[in-house]
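Thread title: Can someone regenerate the structure for this chain?

I was given the following input by a collaborator and told the matching structure tokens would be attached. They weren't. Posting the sequence so someone can regenerate them.
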Amino acid sequence: MTEFDALIIGSGPNGLAAAITLAQAGQKVLVLEAEETIGGGTRTAEITLPGFNHDICSAIHPLGVASPFFRRLPLEEFGLEWIYPPLALAHPLDDGQAAILSCSLEESADSMGSDGRAYRRLMIPLVNEWQAILADILGPLPLPPRHPVSLARFGFYALRSVHSLAESLFRGESAQALIAGLAGHGMLPLEAATTASIALVLGILAHAVGWPIPRGGSQAISQALLGYLKSMGGEVITGNQVTSLDDLPAAQTILLDVTPRQVVQICGDRLPEGYRRKLSHFRYGPGVCKVDYALSEPIPWQAEACRRAGTVHLGGMLEEISFSEKAVWRGEHPQRPLVLLAQPSIFDSSRAPAGQHTAWAYCHVPHGSSQDVSQSITAQIERFAPGFQDLIKAKHVYTAVDLQSYNANYIGGDINGGVQDWRQLFTRPVARWSPYTTPVKGLYICSSSTPPGGGVHGMCGYHAARAALKGMRN
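Best answer:
Regenerated them for you:
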């Protein structure tokens, strides 16, 4: 291989975002990927039956369309097409009704009954300022904030626990359950500080940009990023696992789209002992158990709203969701877990043979769990969609351990690149003025273990590449 200006290890959205940012600056870039296909958390494959295309990790992409970095790229020219379900989210309850999130804030508020007024008071100012809020939270800690008034308004609610926020603002079960389910994406106990921020960001995005799916599957995002990178002369080699910096060709700059554990393994003694010790203290969170279903028919939801939603949260009311999420942190497998479900084939016919469907669902499990909890996931779906089990043609299960085997970045099944609580939000992976830098000149970390953390947005890679470009000039 000829000499490159920059090498990126890992081809997930952050690795590709870093490569694109450097290529845009005129750097000669090479991406090395251990697997035979690119994408990290944005891959699609036939893992149940022929013709049934399942997203392996991410499926719904509000941050994909909201990302300040992705929004500047001509990804549509490289085949990326977004599909917007009529409803972003439905959260059914046992009475056969469901709270909803749609692009219309008013429609969403109306589904919450008497809590609609409180929901409007909470969300309207935040949705109006969504771009300013994202500009300050999708990156390293902004000092000073670029939009201090907007950030302060967001922070007034966001720094609280979602359990506290739900009980203080809402009286009805519907609104409380909806916001609890949103916070469940953060994989934290609902009583933890800052969990409200997760719920608020996802709610804001539902009204501001929607929760779309990519036509054909999440692999389309990776392919569009790859196409744009190649158009600027960037190169990618798959099937090339890097286990040591000694494996790499000469380059001025190296960016690692891996988590702290792999950084230590790859870099070894090249890292100062003190920095290695700090990386070894990085905390990983709970894992997930994921099930992909091949179905003979659409899911027969009791609540009509669920049939129009791309995403469905299955967990019952606030206290039930809170109990199940706390149980996971105690090392337990709850009998009634919070299940996050997507049904892309309802809106994208390319996902399954004519008249048939796919469903994507997961729940949280203790870190490193090898337990198959697919029966609990199926039971939660059946609870709100009687007859579901009769429609299953085939299913595929990833335990938390399986997910780490599939993608080395999912340590213990943690798909967020590490715990995203207040202690490890802006200081991930360690507390440094620029968290993407390391003590080794020319070596950077660009994975979701850096700010702003998990999600398909490319912002970790973008900010790391900006830090690298600054380092090249110094």
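The CA atoms of residues 42 and 394 lie 22 Å apart.
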